[in-house]
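Section 5: illustrative case.
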């Protein structure tokens, strides 16, 4: 039986919850659940507004954006609930949609809140002096660097704790601008490093791929399709080189074994002997457990 364009990944997709107006009545919540704070972000994207709605459980605040889409979309990210709605939908319909999805919203916000309380990496506040995980180390952000390009004080692919990423941004740049600039720098580094390691392991294994690209998936570190296409989550750049190598080899091994059988794991071990500690370290995380998203 042909595989077609089957895709294997380390995690399953997704957290988006599109809904279409008009919504159904809201569901009741368990009385024991404590309210989850929904706080207005320090700054909002262009064209967005902050809105709050009273639900059956608590007030829920959210960032509202208008678009040409045909239905209302709800997504939870670092700034909390984000709602995207068609231009023709009324505010009352948007509020009702949030009320309908109260259970889903609060479950996701509660999980996000507990995750952030648990993680040591939640001190990334996207401002001068903030620390960011990079190659398994912690680098520090510095704003106000003169010139048009960012400057890294350490070795690009061998950083040490305390190395500084000096951003060519004003000292009072808002958190979205800082975050986007750092993300772009990290993604550029991920592209270059992943490419080097991909070529290394393809040469070692004697395999070839059709193409590879970065992904921003919220629930998978990597994936391989049966047509020879590989995707790697750019947020792997937060981890040490051994973890990055493991994920790359994991996906390359799928070129021979589109499964997770014993033969697959033997193939991983053949290409990358001693991969188990890196695999076990990665299993303690999922892409959504990182606060940089």
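Designed sequence:
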């Amino acid at each position: 039986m042909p595989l077609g364009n089957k895709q294997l990944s380390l995690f399953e997709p997704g957290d988006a919850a599109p809904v279409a107006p008009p919504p159904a009545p809201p569901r009741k919540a368990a009385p024991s659940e404590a309210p989850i704070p929904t706080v207005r972000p320090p700054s909002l994207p262009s064209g967005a507004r902050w809105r709050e709605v009273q639900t059956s459980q608590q007030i829920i605040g959210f960032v509202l954006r208008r678009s040409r889409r045909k239905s209302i979309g709800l997504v939870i990210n670092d700034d909390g609930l984000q709602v995207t709605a068609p231009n023709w939908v009324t505010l009352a319909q948007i509020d009702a949609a949030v009320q309908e999805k109260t259970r889903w919203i609060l479950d996701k916000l509660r999980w996000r809140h507990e995750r952030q309380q648990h993680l040591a990496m939640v001190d990334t506040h996207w401002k001068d002096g903030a620390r960011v995980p990079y190659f398994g180390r912690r680098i520090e952000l510095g704003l106000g660097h003169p010139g048009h390009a960012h400057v890294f004080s350490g070795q690009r692919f061998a950083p040490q704790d305390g190395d500084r990423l000096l951003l060519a941004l004003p000292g009072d740049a808002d958190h979205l601008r800082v975050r986007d600039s750092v993300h772009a720098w990290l993604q550029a580094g991920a592209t270059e490093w992943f490419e080097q390691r991909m070529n290394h392991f393809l040469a070692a294994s004697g395999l070839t791929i059709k193409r590879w690209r970065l992904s921003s998936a919220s629930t998978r570190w990597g994936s391989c399709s049966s047509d020879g296409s590989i995707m790697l989550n750019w947020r792997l750049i937060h981890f040490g080189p051994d973890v990055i190598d493991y994920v790359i080899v994991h996906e390359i091994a799928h070129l021979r074994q589109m499964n997770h059988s014993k033969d697959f794991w033997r193939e991983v071990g053949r290409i990358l002997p001693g991969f188990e500690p890196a695999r076990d370290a990665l299993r303690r995380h999922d892409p959504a457990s990182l606060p940089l998203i």
